Amino acid sequence: MKDQKKVAAVRARNEKLSPERRSEIARNAALARHTKNLPKAIAEGTLIIGSLKIACAVLEDETRVLTQEGFLTAIGRAGKAKGGEGAGVDGKPAFLRAKNLEDFISNDLLASTTPVEFVPLRGPGYQGRAFGYRARLLPDVCWVYQDAMVAGKLLPSQMHIGMAGRDFLKALTNHAIDDLVDLATGFEDMRKRRAINKIIDQYVEKKARPWVKMFDLSFYRHIYRLNGWAFDPENTARPGVIGTWTNDIYERLAPGVREALHARVRRNERGKPTEKLTQLLTPEEGKPALERLLEGIILLMRMSATWGEFRAKLDEYYPRFNDTRQLAFGGTTYSLPPPRALPSA
């Protein structure tokens, strides 16, 4: 039996909400139900091959997908799937259902044509979901039409798909050759380094700017609470491990930024920094990015009851760049013992 006091409290709260707010809450609840067991995108971008631009994503299980619209556009079909564009009774998608293509379709190819439903990283999608195909399916489908075209089996109504597939395969071959040369010459690493250097130039200043406080008191208050320590807001002397944890946040800001900050910060004769790392963040990119990151981190802190729970959430939502994500084992959490009393600054 429901607790009538709780029911009344919920009803009273709902009555105070605007119709728009109630609709938003109901919509978010419905989206959560619809997307509960779907894989989530952890990275999104646009794949550019030749003149084609195809929206793509990497899912949390590292599956690479192309959006359904991008996939259909790449093979010369209408980007928006029409009614009946899904798999038919024979399990084939519409773009492989023609009888004249049967001799060019393998069983392995058919097995890989199941659409992938996932939760997009950005944007609501359709009812919180997005639809796509595994990225490796695209060249395989193009080869079906290419082989059929060479064999003279394509229908006049299919020739535009055959031509689009041929153009895609040409562009893909040229792209693959460039990648192989980059790999053989070591330019791939150089290219990555250049990309990181570009990010560093956007985020990190050459010289320090005047100090502006960015890690506010609530950040430290939550650290103490999550570790079960008594917090004194008047005492600015904090355990050294908090500095280590603060440094860790820069690892999650952008590739190479933490190293660049430590390389450029001024130090005294004992090697200790005489400037705050935040003084070296650019006002255009670096500081706004840190502010957004800290907002998310403090939200995770508020949602957590222990330091171990917070760290698990932090690694899940804001993993370090170039870090291997850890599997979650059991429910055990760990926290440090209370710090020893330190003198006031």
Describe what you observe in this structure.
The model is unreliable at 83-89, 324-337 and 339-345 (pLDDT under 50). The chain has 2 domains: 41-185, no CATH class; 201-317, no CATH class. It contains 12 helices and 5 strands. It is 46% helix and 8% strand. It has 345 residues and is of the alpha+beta class.
Q: Determine the fraction of residues in helical runs and give it as a percent range.
A: 40-55%
Could you name the ranges where pLDDT drops below 50 across 5 or more consecutive residues?
83-89, 324-337, 339-345
SS class: alpha+beta
Indicate the proportion of strand residues: 5-15%
Figure out the total of helices.
12
Q: What is the general shape?
A: flat
**Quantity of strands, as a count:** 5
**Element-level helix/strand string:** HHEEEHHEEHHHHHHHH
**Total of domains:** 2
Q: Which whole number gives the mean pLDDT? A: 78
Main pleated-sheet profile? 5 strands, antiparallel
Distance between the termini: 57 Å
**Within the largest sheet, what's the order of strands?**
1-2-3-5-4
Radius of gyration: 27 Å
Write the layout of secondary structure elements.
Elements: H1 4-16, H2 19-34, E1 41-49, E2 52-59, E3 64-67, H3 68-74, H4 107-111, E4 116-118, E5 130-134, H5 137-150, H6 159-185, H7 187-203, H8 217-227, H9 240-251, H10 257-264, H11 286-302, H12 307-317
Antiparallel strand pairs: 1-2, 2-3, 3-5, 4-5
Helix pairs in contact: 5-6, 8-11
